[in-house]
TrEMBL record:
The protein's name in its UniProt record: Peptide methionine sulfoxide reductase MsrA
A GO cellular component annotation in the UniProt record: cytoplasm
UniProt KW Chaperone keyword: no
Pfam families, alphabetized: PMSR
Protein's job: Has an important function as a repair enzyme for proteins that have been inactivated by oxidation. Catalyzes the reversible oxidation-reduction of methionine sulfoxide in proteins to methionine.
Membrane listed as a keyword: no
Catalytic residue positions: 10
Lineage, uppermost ranks: Bacteria, Bacillati, Mycoplasmatota, Mollicutes, Entomoplasmatales
Alphabetically ordered keywords of this record: Oxidoreductase
First-tier enzyme category under EC: oxidoreductase
GO biological process: cellular response to oxidative stress
Gene: msrA
EC code: 1.8.4.11
Sequence intervals crossing the membrane: none
Length: 164
């Protein structure tokens, strides 16, 4: 199993979407790149932790490769908006790809240049960085949209439901 950490705005939607992707075996929402240990949601919302709402995606490479993961990720986000996705604004809602594997980071950078940037006139502002840290979010955030079916996010989950 491989892991990649993807920040795509509010983490509820990306988690719900990746939970529908064939080959993804587990997702955990949390906070990445924080300057303080184990920040709370309230602390992250202040912007002072510098953490990004992030989804830890564990996937089976024999079923889906990193390109497939990134293909799905870029269906979820607007890669040209800085510190904003949909109605959510703030540094915690920035977009990013984080990993402890240097080869995955190189691949992500090349993927953006080859497949993503040519689709946009504005510059792509998705961070590609080594993972500094990842702290799981509070339990009530885990699988939030599954637990709260009347809530919604800015991601069209119907794009992801037929491939698992």
């Amino acid at each position: 199993m491989k892991k990649i950490y993807l920040a795509g705005g509010c983490f509820w939607g990306p988690q719900a979407a990746f939970d529908l992707v064939k080959g993804v075996t587990k997702t955990v929402v949390g906070y990445a790149q924080s300057i303080i240990d184990n920040p709370s949601y309230e602390e992250v919302c202040t912007g002072l932790t510098r953490a990004a709402e992030t989804v830890e995606v564990t996937y089976d490479e024999s079923i889906i490769d990193l390109k497939g993961i990134l293909d799905n990720f870029f269906k979820m986000i607007n890669p040209t908006t800085l510190n904003r996705q949909g109605p959510d604004a703030g540094t915690q809602y920035r977009t990013g790809i984080y990993s402890t594997d240097e080869k995955d980071l190189e691949f992500a950078s090349e993927y953006i240049q080859k497949y993503v940037q040519p689709q946009y006139r504005l510059p792509v502002v998705v961070q590609v960085q080594p993972l500094v840290n990842f702290y799981p979010a509070e339990n009530y955030h885990q699988e939030f949209l599954k637990k709260n079916p009347n809530r919604h996010c800015n991601i069209d989950l119907s794009q992801f439901g037929n491939n698992k």
